[in-house]
Amino acid sequence: MVPSFIYAICFLAIIVAFAFAAYLYLWVKQQKAVNKEILRVSRLIKDGANTFMAREYKILTIFAGVAAIIIFLILPQPIWQGKFLDNLSMALAYIAGTILSAIAGKIGILVATLANARTAEAAEKGIKPAFLVGFRGGAVMGLAVVGFCLLGVMAVLMITSDASILLGFSFGASSLALFAKAGGGIFTKTADVSADLTGKVELGIPEDDPRNPAVIADNVGDNVGDVAGMGADLFDSNVAAMTSALVISQSLTGYEQAGASMVFCYSALGLIASILGIASARIGKNGNPTKALNSSTYVTTGIFVLLSALATYLIEGFDWRIWGASTVGLLVGVVIGLTTDYFTDDSKPIVQKVAKASQSGSAFTVLSGVSYGFISALPAMIGIAVSALVAYKLCEPMGTTYALFGIAMAAVGMLSIVGMIIGNDAYGPIVDNARGLAEMGGLGEETIRIADELDSAGNTVKAVTKGFSIGAAGLTVISLLGAYMSEVNATLASLGRELITGFDIMDPTVFFGVLIGAAVPAVFSAMLILGVDKNAQRMVAEIHRQFREIKGLKEGKPGVKADYDKCIDIATTGALRELIPAGAMAILSTIIVGFIGGVLAIGGFLLGNIVSGLLLALFMSNAGGLWDNSKKYIEAGNEGGKGSKAHKAAVTGDTVGDPFKDTAGPSINTQITVVSLVASLLSSLFVALSIF
Amino acid sequence: MVPSFIYAICFLAIIVAFAFAAYLYLWVKQQKAVNKEILRVSRLIKDGANTFMAREYKILTIFAGVAAIIIFLILPQPIWQGKFLDNLSMALAYIAGTILSAIAGKIGILVATLANARTAEAAEKGIKPAFLVGFRGGAVMGLAVVGFCLLGVMAVLMITSDASILLGFSFGASSLALFAKAGGGIFTKTADVSADLTGKVELGIPEDDPRNPAVIADNVGDNVGDVAGMGADLFDSNVAAMTSALVISQSLTGYEQAGASMVFCYSALGLIASILGIASARIGKNGNPTKALNSSTYVTTGIFVLLSALATYLIEGFDWRIWGASTVGLLVGVVIGLTTDYFTDDSKPIVQKVAKASQSGSAFTVLSGVSYGFISALPAMIGIAVSALVAYKLCEPMGTTYALFGIAMAAVGMLSIVGMIIGNDAYGPIVDNARGLAEMGGLGEETIRIADELDSAGNTVKAVTKGFSIGAAGLTVISLLGAYMSEVNATLASLGRELITGFDIMDPTVFFGVLIGAAVPAVFSAMLILGVDKNAQRMVAEIHRQFREIKGLKEGKPGVKADYDKCIDIATTGALRELIPAGAMAILSTIIVGFIGGVLAIGGFLLGNIVSGLLLALFMSNAGGLWDNSKKYIEAGNEGGKGSKAHKAAVTGDTVGDPFKDTAGPSINTQITVVSLVASLLSSLFVALSIF
């Protein structure tokens, strides 16, 4: 279906990406790592992360096994209706989706737990070498995710020649993302909140103090939440964007081949652009790491725009309107990132205003943060709305289906530079860990200061990449809505029934779906936050037990060690236990609404889910980032500095913001994708069996 | 158009309501009021409330004057296109809408500031007489609002015979509600927060201590926010529900007369049911005031269902399906109220869980409150969704327009008992004030205890009435969406253009509107909360100045009085100043989206606005009520009681919740209605002039 030279470009990009990732991995591995204490702690972190992932993957195996059997039995059509091979392909594609995403996550953890110690030691020599270790460590993850993503989508399509089977692959990626992102998010915040509550608040010992039994779990959390979780999240978005573009391209009569080729070609070019962007990253001797991270993003963006223009010019059938849609998507993604930065950067007025409000007490920290968090959602919502509208209108002259394809290509364009984005994001936990290791390894004040500077850049950039990833998820799910309608109409056509032309909000079944769909992300995030809450209570009890029962631990007697494993264990078990009801609630409500209101209600349900999901995700991520940075701003000596009344209030804000920005907010993306895919996959059942 | 015997029933209901209200007013006035200090303070509160309202009405006169001129010039069609009389009617209807709502608010304040002192003194004799004074005082407001509402709608329709002109009347009511509810909400929370911060937190003096310069402003706030504001809000919802039902009834070919008759007849019967419910309210000597308030609501509900069934049976043309729709609306309203109660009543588990979480610090109070607040939105959203769906499906066999009319009648049904609801709601600030007056008048512990019990019932019932009013607003705006489409199609028909059949979410212009519409309530509430914040800072500075400059005030030297007026002045000026940008933002974004995306984008905009508005309004109102009551639960001696760590955390929760539940949450209703009416009114302009 897709011409072989396009596949060749993809293969080439994948091979170069893997080779480059391997080179970076070896380069990181070769860096100096000699401090015994650092190596010991770094090993503890690595083991902890592996424990969590092993447990997670075990539960996931059961979940995915059951899901694969269900898929095999009923999707795309009930197996007793005859298409055995289609069902088998779908089930296998599903399993492949989970496995490829899991491997990418595993690689990310591997390199991140290697890079953290080496970044800490490199910081002894200055910011330049330390930055490079952290950045290149993150880049390995970025390249692995995008490489596996492209490889998987291509393989499924080459083998089955049916883009609908990709929905199974995409659902596999989403299932994993749900576990990795929401589970990892609960893990990381359980550990973070418990460590802060018992360490900083109760005992007054610094962050990363080795006496605190939760300190290793906290560092593990950064890796499983931000490296593996964020990677799985963007793997999921990227697969979903490609899938929906490819599903819609099947309905572009006469243009199926060119449409699908554009999807693959642009994705491959995005990967190449990311490789060049990563290779070009540089920082001066006393350079600013935030600037270095951002400038490599701009370089990647620029290269992609040029390469994709070149490809559109050279390759027959590639259309400038569709190129325009993809470029608009990418540019809007960058703009969303920048506006997020405005609301969460501590050199900008908003963070400073919240810090100032903290002087009147914690209620005002919370109120002002909530308010600016709500306001911060507006530019991103406008950005997503405008890019969808422009992409549609640009491609509309080619036909209505092309216009939908345009929106999907805007999502593909926005996600083209995702390799770079994941790299920047994974940089965050690596340097965050490095800071902790530098402290625990006793590397001296100057090294800790450098590590701090790298960490602060990580936090700033994380806000930007989060905004970007929510924007990308927004556009992706809009195009998934298109894919859903394509699936519904395919079923209706096969039954000889009248096709649907859309979802009219004046239809009360659609409206019914919209209202319920809108409530789901709110309930989902509430369940995750309450999960963190409950789990943190368990862990705090365990920390108190250790302080009580392990003699000499509290006082820091040499040779007395905390039982770190127990805390990791609690975080792991609890995270997976709290995650499952939330995920089940989202999936079950989709199924219930579908069986009550049918395919029209589900159309509304998806819309409500997308809209309120985007609003809440943006609100929570930005408010969380805002509180985090206003605490740091105060700690830097403003508004009374550390220990002042304002600081105490800011700590409350930060604690509220932690599960907002690292658990609930970014998990909503995944919830939306999961729900959209469940809807598409079950659409034929909803057509057949529904009350209204 | 409507037969005269229906109008006769309405007139009769209005006359009985006004006569009964006059009787209750005189009864309240006759109650004992002899304590000099109480009378003095009560007079201060009355004067303060009148100052605010005078200032508010002055600004409103300018605003309404300008709006009336604009309406006269361009609505329903530009005046240069010839229909001078229509434009004049519209402008006059608009002015009538503001004036009637203002008069009702004025009456409410009059009786509330009379009843507060008398309730306090009656409490010396026991809970039974005190309850009656408070309840009957509130009932006057309820009867006045519904009476004026019915009178106004009837008058406009009798004079113009054109339901579209009612949109002008409804917009007038909304304009007033925006000022009264959002302005009053900012006022009341400015005073409350400042009084708490300086009194309870800084000085450790009790609530309602006369040394605090903000204490009168705080009591004034209860009246202007909860009596006048809530009254204007429900006046607005009630008018909007009747208006949209009447606008849609114009398109019921052959059924216009019966449809309109049902709207009027049901509204009149609801008023009669409320009168009977109010008259039947009783409480035993040691009775439970919450039960008494709730049982009179149930009595009213039961009477209305019976009366409306009787009318449907007796009157020719009245249809049982439409009666069913109205009954479903009413029952769902009651259910929403009950679920709200579950989340906010301190004898139920949720409030107790939040109180327990407070033991770990204020961040956990906030996190658990936010989480349960989000979850609490779900049952109400389901309730609204189900009632709209059932109402539609019930009436669908009669035709699609009947189905839309069914939804509008569900809203009319839900709002039929609004007289009772407003009465219960206005009871709250009366007894709240009475509690303060009992303290300031030195009426002794037992009297204060009784006043406290009455106050606590007021808080519980307030949560229920708020849930109810949000539910009612939800159904109302759904039917306003129907009214909007009717208006658009009327314009398109007059231009000979193709009619629209709905708003398809797959159309990117609609989708564009949805995303932006969804962001507006978030930004609107953020602006109001920040407004409270800013205004409270001004007032705190003033209180500090008074403590510094008025010698002996802090120490409570006899004869030294605080300058209460200055605080009232700050609250008044600030409230109106902070409100205007938020209102302008909502109206302007409607206009901008309309001129960019045209009528389809506005359809989406309204949907997004309704959905996210409902979600946020429910979240904020319920979370606020939840925090308030968990603070009270701790103060009653649980989880460590007053002064404990948990109590401090709960105070933070309560302070966060105050502007949530009394400023932003309930103002979102009004914002949605205003935006819906602006959209309907300007629809012909959007048809004529838009980019896409």
Short description, anyone?
The structure is a homodimer of 692-residue chains. The first copy, chain A, is mainly alpha-helical and 692 residues long.
| Total strand segments of chain A | 0
Helix content of chain A: over 70%
First and last CA, distance of chain A? 39 Å
Largest chain interface and its two residue counts? A-B, 80 and 80 residues
Radius of gyration of chain A in whole Å, from Cα? 24 Å
Question: Which class best fits the helix and strand makeup of chain A?
Answer: mainly alpha
* Poorly predicted regions of chain A: none
Nearest-integer average pLDDT of chain A: 90
- The oligomerization state is homodimer
* Content of β-strand of chain A: under 5%
Largest sheet of chain A: none
Secondary structure elements and their pairing?
The structure is a homodimer of 692-residue chains.
Chain A: H1 4-30, H2 36-74, H3 84-122, H4 127-160, H5 163-203, H6 215-249, H7 256-280, H8 289-314, H9 320-344, H10 349-357, H11 362-395, H12 400-415, H13 418-440, H14 445-494, H15 508-549, H16 564-635, H17 645-688
Helix pairs in contact in A: 1-4, 1-7, 2-3, 2-5, 2-6, 2-16, 3-4, 3-5, 3-6, 3-13, 4-5, 4-6, 4-7, 4-13, 5-6, 5-15, 5-16, 5-17, 6-7, 6-12, 6-13, 6-14, 6-16, 6-17, 7-8, 7-12, 7-13, 8-9, 8-14, 9-11, 9-12, 9-14, 10-11, 10-16, 11-12, 11-14, 11-16, 11-17, 12-14, 13-14, ...
